[in-house]
Design a protein that fits this description.
By secondary structure, this protein is mainly α. It contains nine helices and no strands.
């Protein structure tokens, strides 16, 4: 089919495509936000927690990071229902991606906090700052600058991992694309178009990360 014919098919399918993009962005955004908040807690526990807590959180982090995302998705949807926690496909997908994101963000936070010289924490204690104040005013801003590049990569991975949710029936962009292909038989064209849309979403995340990096950089 010529390019004009394909564009005509895209225009006819614009509503399903836009709905698919909306679901993909919504799931990715929720997973990134929830996973980041949980990941900060994981990173703090790995760095400053008591030894039993560090062992527990370390086991959680290693287990989740070593488990394929698809297994987490299937477990969130099918396994949790056997213990009475019935989640819809959307909620199960967000949970699985958020848990996976939290393990990676936790490691990022741990690495950046441990890279900050210990003397800064001691100086904060010396002037009477509590630990929450020390983290908010001394450790957090420095860790943010160092963690941003790795966090952007993790956020982009969440967008790509959202394609796995089609297996539990989440009508995100990939599932919408597959439905269009089954109707039009334009597999190469629509897969290429979907890849372009995923690139646009991830490019937006990358530009947002660059913007935050500029805003938080120390003037030379």
């Amino acid at each position: 089919m010529d390019i004009l014919g394909f564009l005509d098919q895209v225009w006819l399918a614009r509503i399903p495509i836009l709905k698919g993009i909306g679901v993909t962005v919504s799931i990715s955004l929720l997973a990134i936000c929830v996973g980041t908040v949980l990941g900060v807690g994981v990173g703090l526990a790995l760095t400053y927690g008591a030894k039993p807590l560090r062992w527990l959180v370390r086991g959680y982090t290693d287990f989740i990071r070593g488990t394929p995302v698809l297994v987490l998705v299937l477990a969130s949807y099918y396994v949790l229902s056997t213990v009475g926690l019935d989640l819809g496909p959307f909620q199960a997908g967000v949970l699985a991606l958020a848990v996976f994101c939290s393990s990676h963000v936790g490691e990022i936070v741990r690495g950046t906090l441990q890279a900050i010289p210990q003397g800064q924490t001691e100086a904060a204690k010396a002037i009477g700052l509590t630990f929450p104040q020390t983290f908010a005013y001394v450790l957090g801003p420095q860790a943010l600058r160092q963690a941003l590049p790795a966090w952007v990569n993790t956020a982009a991975e969440m967008v790509k991992a959202s394609t796995l949710l089609s297996i539990i029936g989440v009508a995100e962009l990939l599932l919408r694309t597959q439905e269009l292909i089954s109707r039009t038989f334009l597999s190469l064209e629509f897969y290429f178009f979907a890849g372009l849309l995923y690139f646009v979403v991830n490019y937006g995340i990358e530009r947002f990360g660059r913007y935050v990096e500029r805003k938080t950089s120390i003037p030379s």
